[in-house]
Design brief:
Shape: rod-shaped
Number of helices: 4
Strand order of the largest sheet: 2-1-3-4
Order of helices and strands: EEHEEHHH
Structural class: alpha+beta
């Protein structure tokens, strides 16, 4: 069985067995403009130009032999317009350049610093006020790179925003507690 390679978001995928590639075509994961290649082909071709895979592509009509009508039916059937929404949309042209995924800040080191500060505050003042928020920020920060690598840029950006928000809350709470503690010490010293 042939092993096929294909492109997705400008990146080479595969090799996958032909059956798996056909399933991806049927599910619509691979469109007519997707570039495909297997060993023995001279160059990558769009799926629409590979006859061996056309029967798996739902966007390409498969020619079937005409049906024989019973003698009592008329030879011509009334023309019915296709219902809206069944017309395949044109696929965008294949991207032939180096795809660069967007850079998304993960706020990892900032979350670690927030956690260290809140641990320090807990050791000095015995109040772990900022620690839970720093831990939540760290959890979101660890998710960013994995989601970005999977191509889930919207979820990666959401995790980045959440990490930033929780990290800032941790800093603010730790800072307020520190300032309050220093203020109390200053009042004791002054009195």
């Amino acid at each position: 069985m042939k092993l096929w390679h294909y492109t997705k978001m400008g990146l080479q995928q595969g090799p996958v067995p032909e059956d798996e590639l056909r399933q991806k075509i049927r599910r619509g994961e691979i469109g007519e403009a997707t570039l495909v290649w297997h060993e023995g082909m001279a160059d990558w071709l769009p799926l629409s130009q590979v006859p061996a895979l056309q029967e798996a592509n739902p966007a390409v009509p498969v020619m079937t032999p005409p049906l024989e009508l019973p003698p009592h039916m008329p030879a011509t059937l009334p023309q019915v317009a296709a219902p809206p929404g069944n017309v395949p949309l044109p696929q965008p042209p294949a991207y032939h350049g180096d795809y660069v995924a967007p850079q998304i800040s993960n706020y990892m080191w900032q979350s670690i610093v927030a956690l260290v500060i809140s641990i320090g505050m807990m050791l000095v003042i015995c109040l772990p006020i900022g620690m839970p928020f720093a831990i939540v920020a760290l959890v979101y920060a660890t998710k960013v790179e994995g989601l970005r690598a999977q191509g889930n840029f919207i979820e990666a950006q959401s995790a980045s925003t959440s990490a930033k928000t929780w990290m800032i809350i941790s800093y603010v709470l730790s800072g307020l507690i520190f300032l309050g503690f220093m203020g109390m010490i200053l009042l004791v010293v002054i009195s």
